[in-house]
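Why this split exists: single-chain examples teach little about how molecules sit against one another. For that reason, every record in the complexes split bundles all components of an assembly together and asks for one structure covering all of them. Below is a record exactly as it appears in the raw files.
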Amino acid sequence: MLPEETLDVLRQKITITDHPRELAVEVMFALQKHYGYLNDEAVQEGAGLLNLSPLEIEELATFYDFIYRRPVGKYCIHVCDGTVCWMFNHQSVLDYISQKLDIPLGGTTEDGCFTLLPVGCIGYCDQAPAMLINGNLYGPLTPEAIDAVLKELRDKQPPQKEDR
Amino acid sequence: MPKLIIDTLKIEVPKGTKVIEAAARLGIIIPRFCYHPSLGSLGACRMCAVKFLEGPVKGIAMSCMEQVRDGMVVSTMDEEVRDFRRQVIEWLMMNHPHDCPVCDEGGHCLLQDLTVAGGHGIRRFAGKKRTYLDQELGAFIRHEMNRCIHCFRCRRFYQDFAGYLDFGALQIGSRMFFGRQSDGPLENPFSGNIIDLCPTGVLTDKPSRYKGRRWDYERSPALCIHCSLGCRLVASARYREVIRMEAGFSRAVNGYFICDRGRYGFSYNNLQERPRRARIGQEEVPLDQALRAAAERISQITHQFGKGAVGCLGSARSSLETQGLIKSLCQQQRWMAPNYLADPFREGKVKRAVAGLDGRLAVSLREIEQSDFVLLVGADPVNEAPMLTLALRQAFRKGAVIYVIDPRPVFLPLDFEHLPAPPGDLDFWLGFLLKRTIARQNGEKTLDEAGELHETQEEPAIQDFAFQDRFIKIAELLDRSARPVIVCGTDCVRETTPALAADLVLSLQAMGRKAGLFYLLPDANAFGAVLLSSPESSFLKILEAIEIGSLAGLVMVESNPFKLFPDRSRLEQALNSLDFLLVMDYLPSPIGRPADIFLPTQTVFEAGGIYVNQEGRAQWASPVYRGGLPIEQINNGNHPPHLFREDIPGGEPRPAWQLLMELAHLLSPEQDLSIKTLWTELARGNPVFSRLEELKGPGDEIRIIPEQVEEESFLITGPGNRMKTECAHGDVELLPVEWTLATEELSSYSDPIRETMKKPCLMMQSEMGKRLGIQNRDRVTLSLDGGPLEIEVELKDPMAAGIIVLPRHIDLDWQKMGVHPQWISFEGIKKKKDLDIETI
């Protein structure tokens, strides 16, 4: 269950919309923030709040790149999968991070710190190849730049494994 | 109307038509996957590309997305556009597994056809294909996601057209998955349509797997007889078995779709237990011998007790031919007048409805889709007439407002207002609306008879003003609507309700509204049954005649009153006291007392016949195959014996009307009954039958209701017809109801339907549950006239106070209820004690 105050805010917002569905993304983000990812319980809870069927939530949740239906690390590395980034060899970025963190695409590091995912074009073509980590843009990427980012994030907030 | 040229052919079509439809009118079928006439355009598959040579659009565009405009010159066969489509089909096929030889869709697959037609014969793609885990979707549908080409037809039907929300499109891009959130049976009672819609083998018919290929089947148009709507079907038969049912197209009734009961309910036709030999007592004999013996026994009885000592029971599931011959036979032999409706408490209501329905009132299902306000009175579409639900849903999608006045917990896959009034109050509220509507129109000047009726009616005991306000709102909406439709059931209503509904429609018409009326009747041919019933005959009269001994011989034709009559023990006793019982049927129904002589009849798939639906539309059902014992049942599933014979093994059953004709011939050889002159003869009693001559052959249909019934507008005027508003304080009314997949007799023989049907339960308001100390899912014992009935309770809201609802479930002994309406005291509903459960 979401905390009562979050629920109140969401309920309030839902009542003033014409179609509760409009708030689906916001509700899913709130649930994801609370649970760490959008687990099955969260899907049910979201459906209840928005008066949608669980399947409708699932349809939306699995459509969006930033809604996670499986557990993810503290930092989700979203490497841009857009055309311009392809031109700047985004595959080498993926390969590099994958090798550096020893995880496949979609995998999470053992310490629960990083998850590696692709993302549809994020619009930073001038910074290609680019990636997003928890909303922050990084680019143009080089092995050095990637190393620096990963180190910085890992040092900043040493993640608690049991938190995951 | 815009004029355009498609492939050098000129055509003029209404504004708003899509190019793909305009081409179809010329007989040019442009390749398509996502487009479907009833689902509309989407532009997802890119397969219907055409080239616009001249006019407002230039170059290649999707013909399903472009509306026709003046001066368009369209080519479907231009080299450039052919190449475009060839490439589209190639990339649609990229991930397709090419498993046609083991795919159930193989042979009637749109993807297969268009791949070949599109010129993509040889695969170039050598990469990995995306694969999925399939889901278990219940007894009806097999899921094979790898074959999917993402046309979205299934989701568009399931969620948009039908309004159910447990199946949809998940994921994104090339991972797109069509299915449920997790394994489980689909909740949509129209789910089978996604099989017909799927252009490839993702969603295929599960019960008919491994039974044959499309080209193996004898395919033929057929008619659904599982409710009163009369939807068109396409049936496939093979090896003397009906294998599969698909939706047939009907402009006026079902459109492109059917419900799952109609699709999967046909198995009664193929049953191993189906009686295929005639019997005298328990002994199987040749049919003609049994027929002669039956004629002899009947002659003996008429000799001994007189002509009136023989009676005949038909049913509402027989064809009009059979029903008509029953009537002619009874008239000719001067037997007691026949009866067709074994539910005595529904009989009067059905008769009222049919008698009052005329050309001014009746609307078809398709016309309901065009209405802007639908008021349902004592009608539960999903359970009583499933396809009505989809018609309502389409009206709703176009902006219609939908209100339901019904005591039951009614579910519809759309937003609607439910006013849970108890059955005894329905008349009052209809009268209230009638008065309001007329009063608004005429000021306080004149109230017609209908208005007066309301004036003199007793008010419901509990005055709930908030509830009344909602009816005032309905009156306002009725007043504002241009094409209102009143849907009136004949199950959970009182005898006067159907006529009151007709009055409301007539008064709306008098006010200049294009109003229509849509009745729901109990069975496929209840309408025909009523046309042939004399007003004074009734099932109870026949039963009483047996009980006092004035009726000694009974002929039951395709009739199983045990499924309809609410007092099993009384019926059993009566039938046991008969001197002679002749049964003709195609069902193995246990009827309590074994027949003295049994004659096997043919089903609708073998005999065909005319059925009249609830709006008076007579439809000719074609026979699908010639009958006989399914080959699988002949030699334990092995190859049938290599014997030459001229007849069809197990082919003895005849159409019931033919057996009746032969019986008539044996009884009175000098004055033959004939099927050829049947309609002319029956037309003497009721002129509507003469219209049946216009039915030329299978597939034909015609409305056989009079333009206007003779009575003047308002049907109920006499005070004798008025129903008192009952209120028995502290008591509850037991309401037997229909369920989509569990109460209809024919479909209950089908395995996939049995697998899908819900368990019976007793439904009541949660407030009543609280009062009685009963919780959801508790088991209770219900004291009925015929003995105690143990059943699980489901608390439901909203539903009317003062009623409990019991389905006429096939697995439930609801016939213990005895009379109807049945009132039960609170003491009669006892929670089963924990102790009892332990001892069980």
